[in-house]
Design a protein that fits this description.
heterodimer, A: alpha/beta, 2-enoyl-CoA Hydratase, Chain A, domain 1, 2 domains, 3-stranded antiparallel β-sheet, 9 helices, 11 strands, globular, B: alpha/beta, 13 helices, disordered N terminus
């Protein structure tokens, strides 16, 4: 449970799950958890994501104390409250989503990230509410909204229909953000699936993915079991989505901050040079 | 394959099921011969999984049946103008008594051939896009929208992913939140996850007595959390997916009663009750000024969810 998927830690060396090569841990960290050999982008925590995306010390978390309730008193082999307690201990997070204010190369933004280590980054009431409030914050302040999703779990089943309704809630607030003239940049990382992908994550004005990220609606295993056919290579990968017209761009982790900065600059800039001058026909 | 499916032809439907078909299915549990009497009133102690089985019952009335039994007129409108015409979602102009409405309904198919054509009620992206196109038309024509939800879920398939299933569902949800016409949603059978929500956002959310609505199928949930799909009955219990639970949790606004032996034992009676309920909802929503209705709709979804603002005091 504690082992990060795809990474075997053995002191100074790490084995890359994608190319199976042994990689010097420090080199990997310097490359922001991207394999120097094969460019595989490892899943990273919300904290790490904040650290590598935002200006140092700029992140001011909002609604940090929000905790999951147990609205349907869900119990499988363990109760939902036991599960959330375990996940909180494991990740050091209160919930799968972390949102707040921050800056990218000095430009202020409203920022959110979902962590696939916390119940697969699935969306329950807390994540839904945090995304909704982040969207409202962006609408109110006029700052761009950037959310980096890493949510393989989709809508969180342990909160039953409340989770499904978060899809409507998050989309409702994104639509109000758009009505207010705001911009939402949605960044999809490995993995972003199900109810998260079928709600706010696909409603970005600009949609960016990390290379190789698994993105889609139904999980590949479910599809395979249903149709009993081999799935095409690269199926549901970021590259597959780009090819099918569902992404604006794929940006590697090392370039993400720079690229986001460039986009914000572009969006913040005047539409016409010397906008104060009279337009000549 | 371009032949018109039977359910789309006028006034087919309800009685098209052979008696052999009828005998093959028991409303409760095929394994229990003691339950063979299918018109008998259902006992009060049905388990949530019994209800799931009733909701999936092959003889349960479907959108096409309600079209025949409930609407005074129906003109089907096809196609999403982008890719195709998904048979898993029927859309068209309908008359419900005095009301002109846009009907959007998921359709599973009434026999093997139809079920295959309808992909067992699992819509593809073009189905959601068709639904959205017709709902936009309804908005322009100031027609209220009635959606009948009955799907195990959106189609898990290669083509569906290639054509952006997640995007199609998200777009519908996004648009329905702000659509400037009243929307009434009723779960008539299975309300399967995102596939249901893709036509399930609006001003009234009702469910029929033996329908269910869930974030994941009980089988899927059991396979993930119990590592064994055969624990579906436990999962069905845990997911609180029955009409009664959903009303208690204030996810649905109303439960529409069914005949004593469930809707399939008397489709006519089920349709009559559904019709009355729809007329009541339509009156309520059309009597409300549109701006107030839209604020209420937004507010309803904005408030959805339960959480603690702060770390709760631990009992232990």
């Amino acid at each position: 449970m504690l082992k990060k998927k795809g990474v075997i830690t053995d002191g100074l060396w790490i084995r890359c799950d994608a190319c199976k090569g042994l990689v010097y841990k420090k080199a990997m960290e310097e490359r922001l958890d991207v394999c120097p050999e094969c460019n595989h982008h490892f899943r990273i925590s919300a904290r790490r994501r904040i650290e590598i995306t935002l200006d140092k010390g700029s992140f001011e978390e909002l609604w940090a104390d929000m905790h999951p309730a147990d609205p349907i008193e869900f119990k499988d082999r363990i109760s939902y409250s036991e599960r959330t307690a375990q996940e909180q201990k494991k990740t050091g997070l209160n919930e799968a989503a972390v949102v707040g204010l921050g800056s990218i190369e000095g430009k202020k933004i409203v920022f959110g990230v979902t962590d696939s280590n916390f119940i697969m980054g699935s969306m329950g009431s807390v994540m839904g509410e945090k995304i909704a409030r982040a969207a409202e914050k962006a609408a109110e302040t006029g700052l761009p909204l950037i959310i980096i999703s890493g949510s393989g779990g989709g809508a969180r089943m342990q909160e039953g229909m409340f989770s499904l309704m978060q899809m409507a809630k998050t989309n409702a607030t994104i639509s109000r953000l758009h009505d207010a003239g705001g911009t939402f940049i949605s960044i999809l990382t490995d993995p972003t699936m199900g109810g998260v992908m079928a709600s706010y994550a696909s409603q970005g004005d600009i949609i960016i993915a990390e290379p190789g990220a698994l993105i889609g609606f139904a999980g590949p295993r479910v599809i395979q079991q249903t149709i009993k056919k081999t799935l095409p290579p690269d199926f549901q990968s970021a590259e597959f989505l780009l090819e099918h017209g569902f992404l604006d761009m794929i940006v590697s982790r090392q370039d993400m901050k720079k690229e986001l900065s460039r986009i914000i600059d572009y969006l913040n800039g005047p539409a016409v040079e010397n906008a104060t001058e009279e337009t000549v026909n | 394959m371009k032949e018109i499916p039977q359910h789309l032809q006028a006034r087919s439907g309800v009685n098209a099921v052979s008696s052999a078909d009828r005998a093959a299915y028991n409303p409760r549990n095929n394994a229990d011969p003691a339950d063979a009497q299918q018109d008998a009133p259902l006992s009060a102690d049905l388990s949530p999984y019994d209800i799931v089985k009733l909701a999936r019952h092959p003889l349960r009335p479907m959108t096409s049946d309600y079209i025949n039994l409930m609407f005074d007129d129906f003109m089907e409108l096809h196609g999403d103008r982008r890719f195709g015409d998904d048979k898993a979602i029927i859309t068209g102009f309908a008359r419900l008594g005095q009301n002109r409405v846009m009907l959007i309904g998921q359709q599973k198919g009434k026999n093997t051939r139809e079920r295959i054509l309808c992909n067992f009620g699992m819509p593809n992206p073009e189905g959601y896009r068709k639904a959205l196109l017709k709902m936009k038309l309804a908005e322009r024509l100031k027609l209220p929208i009635v959606t009948l939800i009955d799907t195990p879920g959106a189609n898990p398939d290669i083509g569906a992913e290639e054509r952006g299933q997640a995007y199609a569902i998200a777009e519908n949800i996004y648009q329905m939140i702000g659509l400037k016409t009243p929307i009434v949603n009723v779960v008539i059978g299975e309300g399967g996850s995102g596939g249901a929500l893709g036509i399930g956002v609006g001003d009234r959310f009702a469910i029929m007595e033996y329908a269910y609505c869930s974030v994941i199928s009980p089988e899927g949930c059991a396979a993930i959390l119990w590592k064994d799909a055969s624990h579906a009955p436990l999962a069905a219990e845990a997911l609180k997916l029955t009409a009664k639970e959903l009303l208690r949790l204030e996810i649905v606004d109303d439960i529409i009663p069914e005949p004593p032996g469930a809707a399939h034992t008397s489709p006519r009676e089920a349709a009559a009750t559904l019709k009355k309920a729809l007329q009541r909802y339509l009156k309520e929503v059309t009597d409300t000024p549109l701006d107030i209705l839209l604020d209420k709709r937004y507010g309803k979804y904005r408030r959805m969810g339960k959480f603690f603002e702060q770390q709760p005091q631990q009992a232990e």
